[in-house]
Amino acid sequence: MLIEAAIKWAIDLHNEAGGLKIGDDTYMLKLESFDNQYMPSKVAEGAQLFAIDDDIQFVFSWPWEKAAEPIMTQAKKLMIFNSFVNQPNPEWSYCLNQLSRVDDWEGGFIEALPKHHPEIKTLAVVLQRTETAEVTADLVKDVLAPRYGMEVVATEFWEMGTTDLYPVLTKVIAKNPDMMYLSTISPGDAYLLVKQARELGYQGALGGPTSAPGLVEIVGAEYAEGFMAAEPNYDSPYYNEEARALAAEWQRRYPQMGPLTRAPIAFFRGAMCLFQAMEDAGSVEVEDVMKVFDDPDWTFHVLGYDGKLCGLETFGINRTMSIFVEFSEIINGEVVVLERVFACCP
Predict the structure, then answer these.
(1) Same-domain pairing of 76 and 115
(2) Domain count of the chain?
């Protein structure tokens, strides 16, 4: 629902302005949806339906994008997806990744951490088990923590759907880490983990490049105090009036979806980037849009800043969107953005 709302928002903004203007033509946009039930087989089924059966040129997909990749490549249709792990490459060019590498996302946060909390020296990585989470855990332990003078003293996973995290957290607390490092988890899991860790008496730092909007209201100010996240705060000086207006507009249109956090931002940015590329190409054809992506000087404008595609040096093709990582902390019951780090693989 959240992802669908974010894409529909971008569509509605264009339609309300009169449509997408491509050369001398104007197109009204429409979103078709398919429930993949978070299953790779259903992702492949959806790709088959949209890209081949219905001949739709542009398809948003999340998660399990690799299940759709062979179908999308065979059909020569463009897939827009979210992944820290699976990145476009010359053999997988019919795509656009709305996120940079896990290295850039996690690295941006961990780089900022010792600037604001030099007392944190040991980390326990606590994650829900997924493909991305396992890659993240190894990266933080073997590369990023040592790079910035920290050590991972424990790594623990819980399985999807688990609501009793006390056994996992008890093992983590026994290692006495300065910080429980969280990432690649949903806000709901973040609320649960913070609450249960504090109930067990853990007094160390909590957080990571994750999102937990409304944490203070949900777990209480005492438990939430000091929680660090990659959380936007549109009142901070890192945002301009354009971004603030968009954040307010999201709340007005979709009050049931909560604030404009990084999950809807990713798909809104992806859709806006795609539509701008179509306009700049003067075409709705996939091959013409990809030529715009391949222009190293091309920029897209969304949420008050100009972004670029990256990845040519790292992956051999520019199909990865630049992102920013915001380091925020709950201080006296308020989310305060302390730093913004732009992340883009070369």
Answers:
(1) no
(2) 2
* Residues 218 and 333 both lie in one domain: yes
- Token couple for 106: 């996690």
> Which residues in 137-176 belong to E strands, given as ranges?
151-158
Counting beta carbons within 10 angstroms of the beta carbon of residue 159, is it exposed (0 to 12), middle (13 to 18) or buried (19 or more)? exposed
Mean pLDDT of the chain: 91
User: 207 with 289, same domain?
Assistant: no
Task: Give residue 298's pLDDT.
Answer: 95
Residue 55 shares a structural domain with residue 160: no
| Residue 64, in any domain of the structure | yes
pTM above 0.85, yes or no: no
How far apart CA 221 and CA 15 sit, in angstroms, is 42
Identity of the residue numbered 205: A
Question: Can you list the alpha helix ranges (DSSP code H) found in 182-333?
Answer: 187-199, 215-219, 221-224, 241-253, 262-281, 286-293, 312-315
Task: Evaluate whether residue 50 is within a structural domain.
Answer: yes
Do 179 and 316 lie in a common domain? no
Average the pLDDT over 53-65 and give the result: 91
Q: Which amino acid does the sequence have at 143?
A: V
Say whether pLDDT at 300 is over 90: yes
Side chain identity at residue 301, one-letter code: H
Q: State the DSSP code for 20.
A: E
Task: List the alpha helices (DSSP H) in 88-165.
Answer: 102-116, 131-139, 145-147
**CB-based contact 292:309 (threshold 8 Å):** no
**Distance from C-alpha of 188 to C-alpha of 283, rounded to nearest angstrom:** 41
Residue 63: asked if its preceding bond is cis (omega within 30°), the reply is yes
Q: How many CB atoms lie within 10 A of CB 59?
A: 24
